[in-house]
Amino acid sequence: MNRKKLQKLTDTLTKNCKHFNKFEVNCLIRLFYNLVGGVERQGLIIGLDRNAFRNILHVTFGMTDDMIMDRVFRAFDKDNDGCVNVSEWVHGLSLFLRGSLEEKMKYCFEVFDLNGDGFISKEEMFHMLKNSLLKQPTEEDPDEGIKDLVEITLKKMDHDHDGKLSFADYELAVRKETLLLEAFGPCLPDPKSQMEFEAQVFKDPNEFNDM
């Protein structure tokens, strides 16, 4: 991408980006094209497909839960075309790295609402908790322990007692206790990963190392 195009794209994306300045947006655009390994070719969608994106989540941010990584990919891929384009990359990372509590609550709820019906059901909680908990070899049926955990979670978070979590339930619980933001699995970077990513990316763009 030539300098003029890069400048224009940087200006456009910076206007609509809450949490990054122009220099940071420029760095993220350069990193994006570095990761997709090429320049934009006419008529061809350039983006990070599911596998490439999940690899970034795993290697850079230490995520290991396949189900959660898949949902994070969907949260970034706003137009549902199967790849994260440069605009989705910058705007997604803006929230992912520096979003307000409000933005992060909406994002996490979207990740945890597996079927997109506006609620986190008992079944969805069960699947996510089963995935994210370490498999401990015990004599007891592990599924029973997870079912108990679902009931405990509902007791704590289901304020209208309808057996599922609406966004209102979730928001109320998280505002009381922010640790519940990622109650069903880690879908945001931990502070160490975030600092390392920003330190590596927000520097002279000519110095990029492969990530």
TrEMBL record:
Domain EF-hand: 64-99, 100-135, 145-180
Domain of life of the native organism: Eukaryota
Cited InterPro entries: EF-hand-dom_pair (IPR011992), EF_Hand_1_Ca_BS (IPR018247), EF_hand_dom (IPR002048), Recoverin (IPR028846)
Secretion signal, residue range per the UniProt entry: none
PROSITE patterns given in the database record: EF_HAND_1 (PS00018), EF_HAND_2 (PS50222)
GO molecular function: calcium ion binding
CDD domains in UniProt: EFh
UniProt xrefs under PANTHER family: CALAXIN, CALCIUM BINDING PROTEINS
Name the record gives this protein: EF-hand calcium-binding domain-containing protein 1 isoform a
Biological source species: Callithrix jacchus
Encoding gene, per UniProt annotation: EFCAB1
